[in-house]
Amino acid sequence: MKIFLVLLAMIGLASAQTPSPSPETLPRQGFWRAVLPGGVFRVRLDRIQSVSTHEYTIEPLTRVTELTIDTGGAVVTRFYYLEILTPQTPMGLGQSAVDLVKEKAEEAANTVSGDAGIWKKVTKIYPSTTHAHTVEYRVESKDDIRKLMSSAEKAWSTNHGEEIKLD
Predict the structure, then answer these.
(1) Count of other CB atoms within 10 angstroms of residue 79
(2) Is the Cβ–Cβ distance between 30 and 156 less than 8 Å?
(3) How far apart are CA 57 and CA 164, in angstroms?
(4) pLDDT digit string (tens) for 74-124?
(5) Would you say 17 and 31 are in contact if contact means Cβ atoms under 8 Å apart?
(6) Rounded CA gap, 31 and 162, in Å?
(7) C or N terminus of the chain, fewer CB within 10 Å?
(8) Which long-range contacts (CB under 8 A, 24 or more apart) does 40-45 make?
(9) 116-149 pLDDT tens trace
(10) Burial of residue 10 (number of CB atoms within 10 Å: 0-12, 13-18, 19+)
(11) Helices and strands, number each (H, E), in the chain
């Protein structure tokens, strides 16, 4: 009986010496987390199957830079940056007129939305632009896409949780 009590005390002492994780480290253990103005995305590292970026053009004047995180589940997560392409005129002739049209289009979008920049957020119009099982985040710059990609790849390849915050 004495041996049992001694063993029980040693087990209790050993477990008492194991530090419990602080609240700050809990979200990072085994997870990648992105905190964005449009929401928060969190995924277990062992669920990530691929992290990829690509660029494409939609409509003649919009370029999309997109980061996709594939978790093998029912939901695909996309982070993207949209930029309006300004056509370049030959030898710069009339370029100021093209630039002015772009500027006025952006001003009109801000006026209609009632909030400067709100038109840059993710907009879904059911059913034409709703993507079932897709979570989308729109970011402010290509550099934000690069930062997200770097952070996700680092966390995934090292299997060490990480959090990134974009303002």
Answers:
(1) 25
(2) no
(3) 27
(4) 888 999 998 887 766 666 666 666 566 666 666 655 554 455 554 455 565
(5) no
(6) 7
(7) N
(8) 41/69, 41/77, 41/135, 41/137, 43/69, 43/71, 43/77, 45/155, 45/156, 45/159, 45/161
(9) 554 455 565 555 555 677 889 999 999 999 999 9
(10) exposed
(11) 3, 7
| Structure token pair of residue 74 | 């029912």
pLDDT score, position 104: 62
Amino acid residing at 156: W
Q: How does residue 1 score in pLDDT terms, banded at 50, 70 and 90?
A: low
Pick the residue with more confidence: 108 or 162? 162
Question: How many CA atoms lie less than 13 Å away from 58 in the CB half-sphere?
Answer: 8
pLDDT in tens, 43-72: 999 999 999 999 998 877 788 999 999 999
CA distance 120 to 63: 13
Which amino acid belongs to residue 1?
M
Strand bridging mode 134-138 / 76-84: parallel
